[in-house]
Structure formats: structure tokens, C-alpha cells
Write a structure and sequence with these properties.
It contains 12 helices and no strands. It has 293 residues and is mostly helical. It has one domain. The longest helix has 25 residues, at 2-26.
Amino acid sequence: MVSAIWIGLTILGIWVALLLLRDYLRHKHNLEPNSWWKTGVIGFIGNFFDTLGIGSFAIETALFKFTKQTEDRLIPGTLNVANSIPTMAQGIIFIQIVTVEPITLVTMLLASGLGAVLGAGVVAKLSERKIRLTMGIALLITSGFMLASKLNWIQGGGEAIGLEGYKLAIGIGVNFILGALMTAGIGLYAPCMALVFALGMSPAVAFPIMMGSCAVLMPLASIRFIKEGAYNRRASFIISITGLIAVLIAAFVVKSLPLDTLRWLVIVVIVYTATVMLRAGLSSPKIEPQNVK
């Protein structure tokens, strides 16, 4: 079952790579004036930290704007297309090197994919400000429990590599919601780390689950962006290469980290993400979305 997942991701990755290459060659005489080395460094940095569980979108968005490597209107499509292949590589690598109980892995990955497809309409009607504030507060609370557990103030976390019964149901349900929230621009990595901790699983298990989930989601979005031409072709081509190199380097750094160090890394990632979400939520205008029939 696990082998079927990474084989499927490999096929999907090859398909997206061919679509990107064909579109790049078709427009090779009309490409954006990106700096190869600046864009390459952006992709390397973003995907290196993405492989550590920190996420690449926020980092790359900031670097894109600072270095003026693409138009703002093309950033969403560029982020999805450029990082699809590196993210699929993350999913394939971590599914292979980190053991997760197959039923737990498969069902949570499928749940996130279904969430993105079926939950998008529901999420679109929610206030982005409220989503960010709620998620930010929830992540801060979770990080507090993780820190208390780390300092032996309370019992929490665990070493389990799978779920069953009501915990599996909760994991599937929450990952479905997280997949839907991805369509609203809410990252999946930190909330998934918090979910893994709350359900008593090993922090290492979060990596194949969260990366596998995004490896399913992002290619589907990328295909749409490529067909519509709503992305920076040169930047995406460069980042697909440098990002993949960064993933291969960082993946084995994560694999070699002691579990105790990994726990601290997870806490830092969650606190950082919570802070970013709260800041974005507090700075957003208090405008409720209109219901669309």
C-alpha cells in the first residue's frame, strides 16, 4: 500500500514535470527576465526549510517581493508550480524513510485531497481573518502543551506510528479540514504537526503525512496554473531544479536529527506559524465574505 503511494506520486511528478517543460519550451522566446541565480537561491532556501517542516510559501513570497523576481499577480501560481516537484520528492522520500502505519498514512492523505476538492466551496465562504486568528490561537495553545510535555510538566505526545479507533477518525476528519484550508491559503505543515502530537504519535510521523498530503494537493493546482499560464515560467523551471536539490540535502539532515531535537524543532515551527497567522489575522480588515449562490 505504501509502495503504491510513492509510485503514484512519482508518476504524478513526472507528469507535472513534462507539462512544465513543454510549456517552458513553447514560450522559450518570451520568458520573464528573472535572474537565474537569484531565483535559484530563493528556491533552494525555501525548499530546504520546507523539508525541515517550516514551509516554503511565506519564505519564497518574501524573497520574491524583496528581489522583485516576479509580478505579485503571478506569485500564487508560481509558488504552486515551482514547488510541486520538490514537494512530491519530499513526500516520496519521507514515506520511504519514516515508518507510518499504512492505513493511517493512506486515509489521512486521501482525506486531505478530498478536503481540498470538496471543502473548497465551504472554506471560500468563511472569513479568512477568523480562520487565521482561530488557527493561530489553536497552534499557540498546542505549542504550549508541547512545551509543557517537553519540560515534563504534563504527559503528552507519544511514540506511536499509527492510529486506530476514534483517534484515526479524528485524524482523518482534521486532515480533511486542513486540506480544505489549504485552498484558503492556510498552510498544512504546522497544524498537521500539532495534530500528530495531540493524537500521541511520534513527531517524525508528521513529515510523511504532511508532505504526502501536500504532494497530492499541489500538483492538481499546478496543472490548472500551467494550462492558464498564470505563473512565472522561468522562475518555476529554475526552482523546480534548485528546490529538488535542496530537498535531497535537507531530507537526510532531518532523518539524522535525534528525536529530542526534532521535538524542539516542531515546537519552534508551530510557534512561528502561529505568530505569522495571528499577525496576518490582526492586520486583515474586518470584512465578512459574501455568500455566493
